[in-house]
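ok so I'm stuck.
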Amino acid sequence: MNELRELIKELPQGTPIVVSCQVGQRGYVAARLLQQYGYQVRNVDGGYRTYSAMFGEASLPAASKEMPAPELKVESNTTPSLVVDACGMQCPGPIMRVYETIRVMKTGERVEVRATDFGFASDIAKWCEKTGNALESLDTSGGKVIATVRKGNSAPTDTRTNITAQVNSGATMVVFSGDLDKTMAAFIIASGAAAMGKKVTMFFTFWGLNVLRKEDAPLVRKDGMETMFGLMMPKGTKSLPLSKMNMGGLGPKMIRHAMERKNVESPESLMQGALRSGVKLVACTMSMDIMGIKQEELIDGIDYAGVASYLGDAEDAGLNLFI
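replied:
not stuck anymore, here's the structure
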């Protein structure tokens, strides 16, 4: 899946293509991707696991028996000193648990991480590559992702060139939107960047300032225009609308209900997790002045600055986003 888009031109046009994976999920994604490029494609529902459960190994042709199982499994003979259970957690939960655990471990110690998010297999491999830690084993054969990570003290290495990679020290983003879905995306990316060891700055400006507003902010002295702005704008993450399908406030309630069912962290939890990870939240003072937002109305633990401060951080960053 990681290479399919880059290698898609090598597949023959006009020829039916069948895709299969372990349980059907990745096959479905691959099939949709190929369909968008005009290929005739079908996905094997249920994948290899369903087939083997129904027919067993005895029914497979001899050539199929000799092929390696599609699951990724790299063995490690060393017993880990810690076990982290991230099952049921959605991105960025598992990788943040790894980051928080590794941070307090000693160099050379191992931790076993278990997760049910199938994307974690790719995430943990890339995280180890970029942070200088060693992925000693990775097993996805049992319906879970089980990874063993050894804490290292060496600089991250670029495996493509086999030389020490120059890792940029920062990541910055301008949070311009005050929409719930875009705010969640911003905090997920920020938390992931912090877990990669980057110094992260989130610069909230214009409608993005509403993300930082307190629900129970004290009354402050304002003129007529500022009071009108304050009444029209949402107070905090719990009042943010959706960018699509807001439906008069029903959309955010539906999304939050779906998030709770799928064990996805709330925006409030994501924000607190970002702060714990050292992400710097900065409120744009110019936007605050225009929109009549006072310091007393914003949450604790944030900084206040102008564009020059943001540009200073952005100059040292290898990742810069406008959301």
